[in-house]
Amino acid sequence: MKQKLIPIISIAVGILAFFMTMKFTRDKEADFQKMKDDFNKRAETITVMTARHDIPGGTVLAHTDLKKKDVFKINVGDRAVLLNDGRKLLGRKVIFPIKEDSPVLWSDIEGGNSKASGLASIVKKKMRAISLSIGGTAAVSSMVRPNDHVDILGTFSFPSKTVPGEMESVTLTVLQDVTILATGQNIAKDQLEKSKRSSGYSSVTVEVTPREAELLVFAEQMQGRLILSLRNPDDLHFESDLPEVDFKHVETKLKEYNLYRQKYIRHKKTIR
User: Most CB atoms within 10 A, among 8, 44, 86, 121?
Assistant: First the structure.
């Protein structure tokens, strides 16, 4: 009887040893895979926006303040501004100072990350968002995009200053250096693919003060047309004495403007 039990016990022990070995091997493989995943996670790099130089608190960010840099994701988590979100920073204010070469964190930026907060969270405090019926050629052939800076021009029919009872067309600059928050349904926090950036729209949403909002609403209700003039985002120049343009102004100033362009913009020395 004992002789019959010994082979059975040996087989049972062998089977048990086999399964224990398999379990041990699988546990080791799982531990190794976990270590491998942890290593890959720690070694994963992402491209973020960093400070090109020391940025004091209160600075309104421009292209010249920022640069891109590859960093380990584990060091910044979800707090850093990714390269694809870089345009969202333009025109936004820095709350806390940022050291040169340090990643720009959403917590450093006024309003923080507006990824899931809609348009309202983008509007700066004491400012307002207002939509204007502008699109197509009036929006630089629909190439104006969220975060762009524009001047808003308008052509209106005003009572003539020289002929009582008559109306005359006048073109003037209504507002300068205005930030575009949205074009159609595409808001500044959304980053569109390049192929979609030129899609048409019939309205733009701008960020203005309450008084400017009243001015624009009145301008839209008048019999006229609003047009956008696109600016370089780093151009902070303000024209303090732009004239109202009517037929008489065109007639008297056309030659002067052309001479100025050739001499001071095209730098043609022979122009007098």
Answer: 86
